[in-house]
Specification:
Double Stranded RNA Binding Domain, elongated, 7 helices, Ribosomal Protein S5, domain 2, Ribosomal_uS5, ribosomal protein, 2 domains, 4-stranded antiparallel beta sheet, about 40% helix, Ribosomal_uS5_bac-type
């Protein structure tokens, strides 16, 4: 007498195949999320710290990382762990959760000058013409490179502590706005604020028409 096939045997309609199918779907979704994650991260600084305990000192590492998509979004994070890779991983994860969007003129520079302060840190950010490049110190340069800003002049007039410099830079970037946002908030057109000749340049439609 022929034996009847058990559940999961035979033509592929069993529960085992369904489980394998769900596993493939999860792997494909995970791969899509990884492929779509095109963020760039930069290690700003890493510091070795020590905790004095009974019997000696315990060393750990504190990392400061900035993350951005080079398309107008950037974030920073700090992490601390017993090993360097783990501290960097923690800082990167926190940076991804605190990303902000910064409006840029023509996709390359600021719309206006801005000053940022945090603690003893004070930075000045200035818009720059095309071809200037990034003129800034190490911590601020890392922020602008991950942000995707191509032309900017920045100066630190306060402390050179990397943490305060990065936080002051983000304080300045967080207050940056665009003519479109100001016009929408005031119920006007961009041309009413900047004039008809500068309207197209402010929106990035025709950068060669005028020089803001």
């Amino acid at each position: 007498m022929a034996r009847e096939p058990r559940s999961g045997e035979g033509g592929g309609g069993g529960e085992g195949d369904r489980r394998r199918g769900r596993g493939r779907d999860r792997n494909e979704n995970r791969q899509e999320r990884q492929d779509g994650d095109d963020l760039k991260d930069k290690l700003v600084t890493i510091n070795r710290v020590a905790k004095v305990v009974k019997g000696g000192r315990r060393f750990s590492f504190a990392a400061l990382v900035v993350v951005g998509d080079q398309k107008g979004r950037v974030g920073w994070g700090a992490g601390k762990a017993r090993e360097v890779p783990e501290a960097i991983r923690k800082a990167t994860e926190r940076a991804k959760r605190t990303m902000i969007r910064v409006p840029m003129r023509e996709g390359r520079t600021l719309h206006h000058d801005q000053i940022g302060e945090y603690g003893a840190g004070r930075v000045i950010l200035r818009a720059a013409p095309a071809g200037t490049g990034i003129i800034a110190g190490g911590p601020m340069r890392a922020v602008f490179e991950t942000l995707g800003m191509g032309d900017v002049v920045a100066k630190c007039t306060g402390t050179t502590n990397p943490h305060n410099m990065v936080k002051a830079t983000f304080a300045a970037l967080g207050r940056c706005t665009s003519p479109r946002a100001v016009a929408a908030r005031r119920g006007k057109k961009v041309s009413d604020l900047l004039g008809p000749r500068k309207d197209a340049v402010a929106e990035g439609a025709a950068p060669e028409a005028a020089n803001v």
